[in-house]
Amino acid sequence: MRRPALRRPTWRRPALRTLARGLRARLVVAFLLVAALSALTTAALTFREARTAILKRTQDTAVQQLRAQVNSQAPELTFPPRTGDLVRFTQNLDRAGQAQHWVVQARYRDEPVVPGTRAVGRTVPDGVRTKVRAGIASFQRVDSDGKPWLVIGLPVAFSGDGGQMSGLEVYAHVPLREDEVNVSALVKAAQRGALPAIALAVVPALVAARGVLRPVRELRRATQQITDGRLDTRLKVTGRDELADLSRTFNDMAAALEENVAELRRMEANSRRFAADVSHELRTPLAAMTAVVDVLDEDAATLDPDTAYAVRLISQETGKLARMVEDLMEISRFDAGAAALHLDEVDVAETVRKTLQARGWQNKVRADLPEDVRARLDPRRIDVVVANLVGNALRHGGEPVSVAVRVRPHGEGERLLIEIADRGEGIDPEVLPHVFERFFKADAARVRSEGSGLGLAITMENVRLHDGTVRAANMAGGGAVFTVDLPLRRGGDEK
Q1: Which one of 54, 200, 206, 334 has the fewest beta carbons within 10 angstroms of its own beta carbon?
Q2: Could you tell me the fold of the domain covering 242-339?
Q3: Histidine kinase domain: from which residue to which, for each copy (predicted)?
């Protein structure tokens, strides 16, 4: 069987959408995502630790300074303190904390809160007040008027006597504006550092993607070469990673494929040569046998009935064998690529009509043959095509059998259609894809047939030589139809 020539694919520059969906783009994006995630995680952790450290430092400093001021000024109070003494006490604390910008409030037991000079309107969270009354220093971050503050609560104890609580409570509101500025600067610094890091990650991402994709590109190139028939293609294996294992596996596959294809080609060539040799060797004895049985067949009428039946049977079977040998030789020529076209401009209707007349089918076949349809064809091969299809319809279909020739436009040219239809039961849908295969029998139980099983295969090969196609189908009204579709070439057209 002839092998169609392999065409090398035409490579085009990949479209932008294709590149975006490619493995390189996905690797680069994945690398950048990992780099961005790492940078953001590092920045977040750094920000959290730095922010905690800044706030803790501010908190510890404010608590220490407030405690120191309270310890220095509280001994001047008398207990229970008078309201005027508490006012002076809070004002002194306010003046002492001007550097920290804190505002102070004081309270003695359940008496009203005594605010400092700037503490009007400041409230102390219940949680802080509860802990201070229990004798525990406390602090809490709050937002007031959209600004962050640190609220500190200190219980004042008597010196000596085991640190007994005096009942005096001191509360301070410390602004955290500078800390927030420092934290915002830290966030901006992290952002400015993360963006260049992500941008710089593009370079190692491209390098890494190139290193990963190089073996993939080599594998694609080698696969394409295998597809083009270069079975000796092998990949260069470097390294011991998964891609190297894939390259080794590909080389093993290519070697096994090359060996198997070589063996199949050798067996195919041997079987073709065997069929051709057997067919050629059978021609000479068959010619002698045919000549003898022809003589015996002429005298069969003078023989007794049993002998006459035997002679006619031998003549019939010898004719079948001769046709089978001719079909085998014909298919062998196709397999060897030795079949050639001898084109001539012919009248298509006249050519089909001669085929029917030569086999005595003109009264069995209805012909629709328009005149003046001329085409460049090989008359001998078209005769074989029409004869095989009409003979197949007469043997396996149902009469009436019809042959029609039509011309239809196709693009800038025309196509020649030859249709052979019958009115039989049609072809089993499961059989349709196989009707042009060699030696195919629709009924596996039928070991004998009128033909060689090669007629439709030879028909298809002859049509292919004309750059045409042949197809089989079932008609809606019953019966099968075979359609030969050929390019219509007229005088002066090149093949």
Answers
A1: 200
A2: Helix Hairpins (1.10.287)
A3: 277-490
